[in-house]
Amino acid sequence: MRLLKTPALFCLAVAWSLTVSAQQGGAIAEPVDEAGYPPLLVQTCFSCHGPGGQSQSPAIPSIAGLPRDYLLNVLAAYRYGGRFGTIMDRIMGAYDKPQVEIMADYFSRQPYRVNKQDAKWQLVDRGRQLHRRYCRECHGDGLQPSNKGAPLLIGGWMDYLRWTIRDYLIGINQGDEEMSRQLARLLRNHGEPGLEALIHYYGKGRP
Ligand code: HEC
Ligand code: HEC
Question: End of a domain among 80, 108, 136?
């Protein structure tokens, strides 16, 4: 299990559950705070996902600027099945639908930003070609999202992307059927080096 291999994440999880118990019994967040601050409800997400949803940790995805419907789907999937989580499955059990809508509204309105990390520039051109051939149709062209509702991948943390793609490949994440076909084709035609090139292209964050 991933969680056991990442002690930092485990500590975050413990810290998070302590914060939550401290807050239980308090008022539930309002959709919009009068003073213009982010709703209290989404501030609990900042401890892991970073301020405004811009994650500072390679193990935790940035969630700022993801499409609203994608956020709704993925948060429901953590709770009801279809998406593997080391921690999000347990977290989402604590919230009802109106609360999840507040989260999706808030994070989808934050600006999407590229995370800064070390990616191998030598792999970027190859990765871009593979993205165009196998993934662009749904995951967008550079920083321009497609109309298919799938999230942008460019600028995502490479560790997170590697794990998440594995989770789709081994079937503990249920993705789009067409995506499974494209991932299988990518691996058949280009193997692990193809997948790595793709991940470095996303990691570099250059459209
Ligand atoms: C204790 C740390 C932690 C907290 C708190 C946390 N998350 Fe997460 N989140 C993660 C991790 C780690 C992942 C990757 C999936 C996993 O391993 O569970 C993730 C994944 C996600 C994803 C999927 C992102 C994608 O690119 O598909 C969304 C959306 C998300 N979290 C939203 C939230 C929201 C909303 C909150 C606040 C209620 C929240 N998270 C609180 C750690 C956390
Ligand atoms: C036919 C459309 C389609 C194609 C082609 C496609 N995807 Fe996806 N992808 C999706 C959809 C839809 C989701 C959201 C699925 C979900 O809710 O779990 C997704 C989710 C993902 C995620 C999770 C994102 C996150 O933030 O957690 C990754 C990683 C991913 N795809 C990688 C790829 C790669 C790599 C390729 C190319 C080899 C690819 N996809 C091709 C539709 C597609």
Answer: 108
DSSP class of residue 169 equals H
CATH code for the domain in which residue 75 is found: 1.10.760.10
* Per-residue pLDDT tens over the stretch 62-107: 999 999 999 999 999 999 999 999 999 999 999 999 999 999 999 9
Contact assessment for residue 4 and residue 10, using Cβ atoms and an 8 Å cutoff: yes
Domain count, the chain: 2
Asked whether residue 158 is domain-assigned, the answer is yes
- Residue from 179, 187, 189, 190 to probe ligand 2 pocket by mutation (most atoms less than 8 Å from CB): 179
Measure 153 CA to ligand 1 centroid, in angstroms: 16
The Cα 99–Cα 189 span in angstroms is: 43
Residue whose Cα lies nearest atom 40 of ligand 1: it is 45
